[in-house]
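DATA SHEET
Item: assembly model
Revision: 1
Owner: S.N.
Input lines:
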Amino acid sequence: MLIFTILLDGIAYGMVLFIISVGLTVTMGLMRVVNLAHGAFAMLGGYLSSVMIRHYDAPFIGGALIAALVCGALGGLAELTVYRPLYRKGELAQVLLTFGMIFISIASMTLIFGTTPIAESMPKWLEGLVDLGFRTYPTYRLFLIGVGALLALGLYFIIERSLFGARLRASVDDPGMARALGINVNLLFTLTFIGGCALAGFGGAIGAGILPIEPFYALRYLVLFLVVVVIGGLGSFRGSLAAALAVGLIETTGKYLLPQLGSFLLWFIVFGLLLWRPYGLLPPKSAT
Amino acid sequence: MKAIIRLAAIAGFVLATTTAIAQTVKIGLLAPFSGPFAIWGSQFKQAVEAYQKVHGDSVKGAKIEVIYRDNAGDPTRTRQLAEEMILREKVSFLTGFALTPEALAVSELITEAKVPAIIMNSGAAIITRKSPYFVRVSFSVNAFTAPIPAWFEKEKIKSVYILVSDYAPGHDIEEALKEGVKKIGVNVVGAERMPLSTTDFAPYMERAGRANPEVVYMFVPAGAPSIAIVREFAKRGLKDKGIKLAGSGEVQEAFLPAIGDDVVGTISGFHYTETNTNPQNVLLRKTLVELFGKDATPDAGSAGAWDGMRLMYDAVAELGPKVTGDQFIKFARGRAWDSPRGPISIDPEERDIIQNMYLRQVEKRDGKLVNIDLMTVPNVRDPWKIANPNAK
Amino acid sequence: MTEPGKTTLAPPFTPPGSGLGALQLRDLWHLAPWLIAIGFYFVGDGFHSFGTNILIMILFTLSLDLALGFAGIITLGHAAFFGAGAYTAGIIAVHMTTDPLVGLLLATLLAGVLGIITGMLILHTQGVAMFMLTLAIASMFYEVANQWRSLTGGDDGLTVPRSAPLLAYFGFAGFRFDFRGMTGYLYTLSVVFLWFLIAWRVVKSPFGRSLDGIRQNPRRMRAIGTPVWWRLVAMYGLSAAMAGTAGALQAHATRLVGLTSLQLELSGIVAVMLVLGGERRLYGAFVGAAFFMIVQDWAAAKNPVYWMFVIGGLLMAVVLFLEGGLMGLVDKIAGLFARKPGQKAGGAK
């Protein structure tokens, strides 16, 4: 019985990580920019949707969607102003600049919202438990699994079955060639960046029950998002799904079965995996 | 001639300024104002400001200046700040201290510098033994378990599962509860220590639910962890199974709105019931609302800060602005007064607090979630100190 | 065009001066930071503990300069070695001996060994993978310290007993560590000075130069036969040892070792200090660390929220507009004064 709990909890957790991190894998894999501030967009999404729900009586999903839109817009703005100059400056500059952005986002959120984590605004239909027959399980986590699966499916269709997706994959595999074929790679970058930030905001909003929203969110979960992206393989959607689920399951298993180890188990596995496969589990062709 | 006049002017100026400075009593308040436990810093500050609004910011001509410093809950930072306060600002008192590690970090420093530290919150039993200059006006966590056995007997409860945070106060309370319930024949079906940084209590509540106790007793630092754990208790179906949840500071009134209606029915053994009608409490609540708006709610931190200020003000009033650490400690021993919580006094031997312990239950009254007293155990001395007279 | 019958000789080759004979007047600038530090000892009453903390951060930042600035190893996990040194010194003081030098040496050694071992494991990777591996290592250290409560005190932290008097050997009573922190300050200053000399020598040596090359183009360095991996490991190990010393000094100074000494935030902060001051400048570490600590102290006293704004903004400004950090700025300003025809602009250090 415990194994079902671990599976369900792990997958739910992994789904939240996937939704937030999939945008980051594109940024780092496609645009080759180390964006440590990605978690800040997720955090912002969480705060925004909470404000929508509490002060403007927005429905839960509606609030999350609005948060996604705002985060996407902000992402686009940031890309044009802050990230563009970074492309040429090298990894260290990107690491440091986005680290600075994290500090500023933490400070802003503290200033506006204070330091206590915001209270969860869970709608009635997500509270409570669902009877699965062999056990009951929190509705909210099932919802997360469902939304994550839907999004993964949707992204699959976009990436694998649409023209946009084809162009995107081409640009990831060989930007020079893609440009030569007339694909506007820069525009693709910007659009995907916006999409990634929007997804992060959405993920932060609906995942607030598992990853509580507080000013240090951007820093606290950053390493998890990075792990998902790097283990999965930069630029690989399938990779980030696999890695997110793996991280979710490993962390959850550790919590239930080996609490004395804490997160050591996860890091040990990350360490081993990276030494064995430095380009990730399912890297896109351009990496190797 | 000119030189002499100049010298005299300078001397006079220096004399005047030093005398003026000597009339200020500086208090260094170290607490988290940022980070996950920032709620303490803000509660302390609000209560101090409320106290100074009511009693003024000077005592018999001496100005009382409170200097706030953020330690972000970090013991290393606390120690550095304490050093700065003592050496740079030349404070007469140190105070604040939300979590236990913050207080422990300054124990040797205050002994060497002979500066008293008045603890407004930190709860591990051993703190006041670590330095003769600690005076605690808040609580000792072990005392929170005092009313629980009586409640168990009344409700004929026979089994309990214990979940505590893995740090000194958590360990203390686990031991204290085990001792207390052993005497009345209650079975401890399980006990777990959770890392202090835990935000996801699902695994612990799962295991607790499986063990099928009648009561789950919890201890986590108040704030984000306590909100999360109470919610998880309901989310994992334990409440629906009929299991009761008991704790101490997790369900203080200030956190109840964030937890939501799931918290109704939760039992706590605590030293301060926010809705009580003591005149000091009424004054505290009234002033907080005046200064900070109608949603301002006092909690244990506020009560601790209010009483800490009271003790320091009384000391300065009786002993003057140049009161030394040793004089203050002598003054504090055995001192008794009326607090927003009820009658309290300082244990003359241990310099720890002696106060009533209340057993409360969360109810919804007039649409508001509040704690209502069910039972009172009067004048509780820290049980750990009684059981361990020589431990340091 | 040479005239027929005449050969023009190249101008005689004068190798750059070395040793004390090559000292010039402008080299006296090098004394400046040390004179300031010593002067501070006499006038900074009440601030010695703060000064000691600044010195410790300078040492830590200097260590990162070696690994990140010179060798080009992008790491946000350097706090692992700082914390390892801190906990080692603390544990030794609690369980073995309170002689500070013993703790210091063992902490340095252990951190260095850990640096070499982890370096050997990860330094053949590059880019993002290496970056993540440094994070993974730091996180593992953190979890070990967090869980091994009996040794490290876990969340409560490890209280370190006061160090025995310094240099109390052969019948000499030694220098007592007073709570005003004055002995601690001089002790820290001496250790920092020693490490600075070592760093200076290493950086100016052929070994150090080769690492500069490795940072810029590892492939080419391999092509000319440099044992790239070994050199990186050696530099990483040295840098780790240095960070370990800084940690040990902090354990002795603040008498408390907490989990924050192993956290990502600390690694990030020391990287900020380095960039603010200017990488590969050695003195950049001094300027950056001192600047950061002073601003933090001032801003945090005003309002704890503001300092994150200030630091974040400064970091972004430095990356976007001020390459080379504050030392780079100093160079630019000095360049305005020193430029003469035929001379290099600015003081190249």
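QC remark: The radius of gyration of chain B is 22 Å.
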